[in-house]
Amino acid sequence: MNTVGDNNQNQQPKQQDLNQLLKVRREKLQELQDNGMDPFVITKYDVTAKTGTIKEQFEEYEGKDVSIAGRLMQKRVMGKASFANVQDLEGNIQIYVARDDLGEDAYKLFKRMDIGDIVGVEGKVFLTQKGEKSIHATKVTLLSKSLQILPEKYHGLTNVDTRYRQRYIDLIMNPEVKDTFIKRSKIISTIRKYLDGQGFMEVETPMLVANAGGAAARPFETHFNALDEDFKLRISLELYLKRLIVGGMERVYEIGRVFRNEGLDTRHNPEFTLMELYQAYTDYNGMMDLTENMYRYVAQEVLGTTQITYNGIEMDLGKPFERITMVDAVKKYAGVDFNEIADTDAAKAIAKEKHVEFEEHHTKGDILNLFFEEFVEEHLIQPTFVMDHPIEISPLTKKKPEDPNYVERFELFMNGWEMANAYSELNDPIDQRERFKAQEALLALGDEEANTTDEDFMYALELGMPPTGGIGYGIDRLCMLLTDSPAIRDVLLFPTMKTLEK
To answer: For residue 470, what is the enclosing H or E element?
Structure first.
């Protein structure tokens, strides 16, 4: 079997050869245009079947005429007949192309097509002598001419930096990457389906805000020329969604991008997808029940099972999620009972003993959280709700009636990662103002992640907000777990990258 022109897939061309191959492709396009066969004037093509569907339902399609379209990925020319491979969204399929079926001129045109060209194929579905599900082509139409060279097939696109920067090539060359993003889309649509079925309403709130609140994060800043006013990109969805609860929209959610001016690592990207939802007349216990049921539903719908495997570690979403307080978790894994620690001085003393670093302004509650991060998180592999956080790290959360040093808050952990953060929302405007004042004191001390008072939100709260449960979910981390992806960049189509120097 021979390949034609630049269709040789067995070796990567040198730069000089590459330039010549690119030149030849443009010459082929010009020749087509000169002969009135410009592929770029074609505006539509009637597709009647997808490759994956043909293969999965082969008994229904065998012997029938179909029309497919996709990218030419392989081509083996053998004189009067050829084999090729066409790839579409669902996968790829072999096509058999014979001169006697297409005609002399059409077959010559097919032979001059290149790997990467977009083609339409009409023909009959059949099974080859070797058992390959294929299409016997009666017509091949060039729909778009590829003027660049794809990476050679057997090595593909493996450079990680290039894969992220040129995701379009990554999707063409690596089918498993395309499958990841198909699953991501299904995860999000399944979440919507679940919440809509629970009576929630999807809404949209501003990305450009005067006050970026609702989370501990440093915002991006920008300037709006028309108003000659500085704005920030939102760091969370919380404060606007709570305004809607005040307005009587009792169950709301939003899935949207938020922006945090922080570092890059395997679990963090400065822009990421967050889902927040708020439900009137419930608390953090209601949020736990909703979360457990939703995670189980999404896994079953997307993967067909509630048992998932990430990096070789099995996690079972079918079993009841563990529920443990932060104090009990630290006692379990660090051997320190913060119920027996009298005050901040005692907490700092035990932190020094256990080599836990802290800052001078930290209080007992802050140090409890540091112990949790240091000794506990890595152990929380199976789905676990960690409840009842110290008030110092929870400025928007209701106090526990029986112990005002702690709040009705939980975080969901899986695989040692925080997956969700939920509160019984603070609806006492007087208490909320005091919490904002405490945040502003931290800001004055140099904490760039501290919140400032949002007066419009305070006005809304003073109108009256019902008892409310609220939660935020990191959609990207959920996608990582359900697709077994090692880094957040693997589930973001276009992750943030440093600009290449020219």
So the answer is: strand 468-474
Residue 444 has pLDDT above 70, yes or no: yes
Annotated domain spans of the chain: 5-154, 175-321+382-491
Report how far residue 488's alpha carbon sits from residue 467's, in angstroms, rounded to the nearest whole number.
35
pLDDT at 143: 98
* Spatial CA neighbour of 293 closest among 200, 194, 199, 385: 194
What is the token pair recorded at 432? 């909320």
The beta strands (E) that lie in 246-302 are given as: 251-259, 271-280
Q: What are phi and psi of 232, to 5 degrees?
A: -120, 155
In angstroms, the CA 325 to CA 327 distance is 5
pLDDT tens-digit readout, 271-290: 999 999 999 999 999 999 99
DSSP conformation letters of 325-377: EHHHHHHHHH---GGG--SHHHHHHHHHHTT----TT--HHHHHHHHIIIIIG
Segments in 114-233 forming alpha helices (H): 160-165, 167-173, 175-197
Please tell me the CATH superfamily of domain 5-154, with its number: Nucleic acid-binding proteins (2.40.50.140)
Q: Which amino acid is at 27?
A: E
Residue 343, Cβ neighbours under 10 Å: how many? 9
What dotted CATH number matches 175-321+382-491? 3.30.930.10
Which residues are within 8 A (CB) of 144 and not within 5 positions of it... i.e. 6 or more apart? 39, 40, 42, 117, 118
| pTM summary value | 0.91
Could you say which DSSP state residue 425 is in? B
Contact 364, 347 (CB under 8 A): yes
Q: Is 318 exposed, middle or buried (0-12, 13-18, 19+ CB in 10 A)?
A: exposed
| Equal CATH topology for 5-154 and 175-321+382-491 | no
